[in-house]
Amino acid sequence: MREHPESPIFGPEDPRLDPPNPPEIQPVRSIAKAISWRVVGTLDTLILSFVILSFLGPFLGLEEASGVDKIRTAALIALTEVATKMTLYYLHERLWSRLQWDRTVDEEGHYREGRRRSATKTATWRVLASADTMVLGFVFTGNLATAISIGGFEVITKLVLYFFHERYWARIRWGIIAGSA
Fold this sequence. Notes:
Layout: E1 24-25, H1 27-55, H2 67-98, E2 103-105, E3 111-113, H3 115-141, H4 144-170, E4 176-177
Antiparallel strand pairs: 1-4, 2-3
């Protein structure tokens, strides 16, 4: 008995995945997404760092510090992340703009991104971003356990925030030049 071949997951076999004139995602869109995500991400890092420094710091071997010192350290981590994460996010976004996996072109000539694509982008970004946070946490606290704690808790909060950020931006057509359907 002859088996039927599996349908491809992605590839030129589906003409919607390899259109002759695909939509073009403008770099300005990637910049706007990077800025909007960085605002959300910086606030999350600031609050999370302060909470961990305040409540877990003594258990992780950090010396007791004043509230002002804790907020200062949290602010240094969060504000330094603005520069490092904006750069990393832009590069991540440009890489993903070149990948065709799990996106199609709609009748108006715009990309429609699937949930699997958003979830995969979320996971790859989170690995990269959490590593960056852990490095910055270590640089500013000098304590590896604290740095890992900040990065570890951040994985949970930011996965959720980033997924919804991606879903929101998937509905916005600004910064995309339509191709032919």
